[in-house]
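User: Assemble these into one structure.

Assistant: Restating your components, then the assembled model:
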Amino acid sequence: MNPWALYALSGVALFSVGLVGLFSHQHVVKRILASNITGSGVLLVLVALARRMSSGPPDPVPHALVLTGIVVSVSSTALGVALARRMARLQAEATHLPEHEPRSDGEGP
Amino acid sequence: MTDVLLDGCLALCLPLLAWLVLRTESLSQAVVLFVAFGLLSALGWARLDAPDIALVEAAVGTGLTGALLMHTLSWTEETPPDVRARARRRPWALLATAALTLLLGWAVLALPADSPGLGPEVEARREDSGVKHPVTAVLLNFRGYDTLLEIAVLLVAALGARAVNPRSERASSDAAKDPLTGELFRMMTPALLLVAGYLVWVGDHGPGGAFQAGAILAGGGVVAILTSRMGTPRMSSLRVRWALLTGPLLFIGVGVAPLLSGRRLLELPEKLAGTLIFIVEMALTVTIAMVLLMFFPGTRPSRAGRGGER
Amino acid sequence: MTSVAALMVWPVILPLLGAVLALLVGRPGVRLVAGVASVATLMASSMLAWEVAHQGVLHQSIGGWGAPLGIEWRADGLAALMLLTIALVGPLISVHALDHFGDREDREFLPLWLFVWCALNALVLSADAFNLYVTLELTTLAAVALIAVRRDLPGLDAGLRYLLFALPGSLCYLLGIALLYGAHATLDVGTLAQRVQPGPVTWVAAGLVTVGLCLKTPLFPLHVWLPPTYTGAPTPVTALLSALISKGSFYVLLRLWLEVFAPVMDAQVGQLLGVLGAAAVLWGSALALNQTQLKRVVAYSSVAQIGYMFLVFPMATSGARAGAIYLVVSHAAAKASMFVAVGNIHQAVGITALGGVQGLAHRMPFTFLAMALGGISLIGIPPSGGFIAKWLLLNEAIGTRQWWWGLVLLVGSLMAAAYVFRILRGSFLPLPPGVTVRSIPLGNELAPLALALIALVLGLVPWFPLDLLAIGASR
């Protein structure tokens, strides 16, 4: 039996779990995780679609799309994480500054 | 029989694990579970005859993303969302997930079950693309324009990530003296370069290519950054900018050059296509490695204030 | 033939090359490189629009492979008009941005804006569903980086909020495209249009694509991210977001819906989109009337104006299409002008409250002239692009016997008149004591005026854009 349908269904389930999670969580890291799960669901659907003929090599076009998709997803995660990190740092500075001396790694004006 | 069992188990476990990732209270546990989830899903991809992109997913989609998130957790406070608020929301979320899955599953099951997709078309024109591996042919030639824009996506993300966290923490001297990591790097660096070069070369006729090679190079660099042996590449350094931008410039040049002889954008001459793709891929490997490194902002500035950190 | 088709390359490649070179040269030359790239791209876009106006629809198969293997470009009148809009509105906003930002932000703003420009032009020309996804993502990520360019808490919060709504939007779109590929083994929009059949795959794919793009545009009730994002972003970036970036996803939706989905979908779905659009008009206008912050008034007005654009879906005639696109274009100019004017006011008095405009009409005449002209277009009073757009939509509402959409147009216009009047009225009051007005560079005062004049000219000579729009409209 060709397992593509199983994995495609698993992919849409992942997509749903991620999408619902994305809108029901508040914490940035949780939401970024959820968006990665959503993305990985879509990619799993694409990989499954490439393997519908049980003989011969799989369809290379979805594989290429998936590689592009991974790059895009890593890029957006990295950007989101960078923003979150900077926010955490500014918030920490805002709460810690009154007690401590100004930090030496000044951020410029 | 065992195959069906394995596939069924895997297909069932993935959403459950994903659900668990999002349900877990502790954020660091959630990230660890996410990495486990990613590796399991790569296993699924391998079962679907996509071992090469499964490796990329495991290395980049899971490994690098997991490292990024873990790294961020060390910067942000662990503030789990309000427990009661989540408990109230759970039945609603479960219901929504189930409904959405059913709706999407209905469409998936309505898809033709034995379509070869564009496989035959790619096979028919592969000879003209200058490379033997079908995925590389699609990525760098048939749909090379997508890849050009994808490089722009990477540049934008790197630029954005560096713009908001501009100061990389310098390598601290005590970590640089650590004999163990020093020895590790002395052994690792030539091997990494060799593997990366091999991956670009093999991309022509087998699974491999610029992205895989760049990820391997970046992997070594990330370890160096996280152990404070190296600072994150800075945009203010001209050398970094050249390393980052030679690939894109070369790619644009190769894309536009055919216009001079009355051809179309990215219409590579058949005889030169293989060579051109190889050169572009070499340069892009460096770009991709640089970008991935730029995503990592160095070690966390300690709250205690070690004074000299920059 | 090839040399004409080659014209399509430059509006995409020139800003990309400009962005890469601007990054490479760094601090000293970034303005020069960006300036040259902007002028060159404006020229390239104009030349392409000229060719389309005279020769009709242009095609190019990138790499010479042709669909379904390769990626296709297609430039019809709609695409040409969008290219022109981006090329005129974008640089005027970026001129304003130069004085708004410091030296460091400049170095990051200019390359990022060029990336946005490249992405939007690529989006406008693309006839490939997956390529559209890549251009959408490039736009989103560059927009996020732009929103956060000042590295302050409101900007970072706004950027993250935008990212976390735009990402699921893109992923919904991508899953929809994956389903369509699974069913029809092609990503080419033209081929998809021929192959789609009514059935579960098409319905679910259309739903995913529509929801995804509505999240990004955004359409009521998915607009919750818009007011905080537009308020938290630096004002020139808000202008870019509202005028151009949000139009990118609407453009893709309009294209795919009219060319691919409309023939095989139930008419009720079009009605649903229309109802949501109408709700956006009423809800957005009502909230715009209730805001106490100047920038939020203009931001909520964007929720409402996007709502009008969705009235095209229930009517789905070529007249309604022209009306919606005319609104896209005139709103781009008018709203950019308003946001840039808001930026000037913030810079001059440093007050973000609505009352901050008090007494400024005499001190900043050009800024408030721009505000008034932009406001006229938002309300839809002649002569303005907004008037032509609403007139076209009203005509179609009556022509298709859906008078209720006409009612929405009229009520929305009255509400817009009220919130525009609220801003302008204050500006003619005497300057409150104790407020010092910093002088604004003349270029900054003229940029919003130039943008508002575009909206005005769209109302005075609608023939050229309307003729252009008709090229390649009936497929």
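Confidence is low (pLDDT under 50) at residues 80-85, 302-310 of chain B.
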